[in-house]
Amino acid sequence: MVWYNMDQTHQAQVRADETQRLQDEAAAKKKADSDAYWAKAYADQQKLQSDEAQKRAAADAQAKAAAAADLAAKGWKPAAAGIYTADIPGGYKCTTLPCNKFLVMTTQAGGCPNGILIRGRWLQHGVVTGPVTEITGSLHEGEQAAVEILDYTGNSDTVDLTDFRCN
Questions:
Q1: Labelling 72: which of 1, 64, 78, 150 has CA 20 to 30 A away?
Q2: pLDDT along the chain (167 residues), means of 10
Q3: Does residue 146 contact residue 101 with C-beta atoms inside 8 Å?
Q4: Which three-class secondary structure state does DSSP give residue 65?
Q5: Is the dihedral of CA 29, 34, 38, 43 positive or negative?
Q6: Cα–Cα nearest to 144, from 80, 94, 76
Q7: What pTM does this model have?
Q8: Sign, CA torsion 96/99/105/108
Q9: b/e for 49-69, b at 16 or more Cβ within 10 A?
Q10: Taking Cα atoms as reference points, which of 122, 80, 78 lies closest to residue 98?
Q11: How far, in Å, CA of 43 to CA of 46, rounded?
């Protein structure tokens, strides 16, 4: 009878262990399924956000290209990223000293709060005769400034403007 009771106790323990093992396996499978579901949901959300960002970027690029084409049609030439130059209407000519007069504009978001820095060099028959450094006043996005660059030495016949940047 002792052996019988011992056998029943052992069998109960084996059944309990097996039940626990099956429950642990079921819980592990449930967790793995849940993890897989949430990983897929996260990946789907990331893809959706990426697709939306690509669509916005494409739309922004298209809008910028259209704006650049519109500026070009109005006589504006790109000088640097988001900075354009144009001739002053009416063909303004310098009277005494060698000079260059033109318009400058920024399309950069936030504008150029400290102006646009313009650098270059004065030339006489292809020989550098002096530097050019000008800074416009503060410009908001889409605003224009008239720039007049003078060679006070009078020793040049052309100007080569090499650098335009938001200051």
A1: 150
A2: 64 87 92 93 94 93 88 92 90 78 93 96 92 95 92 87 93
A3: yes
A4: helix
A5: positive
A6: 76
A7: 0.65
A8: negative
A9: eeeeeeeeeeeeeeeeeeeee
A10: 122
A11: 5
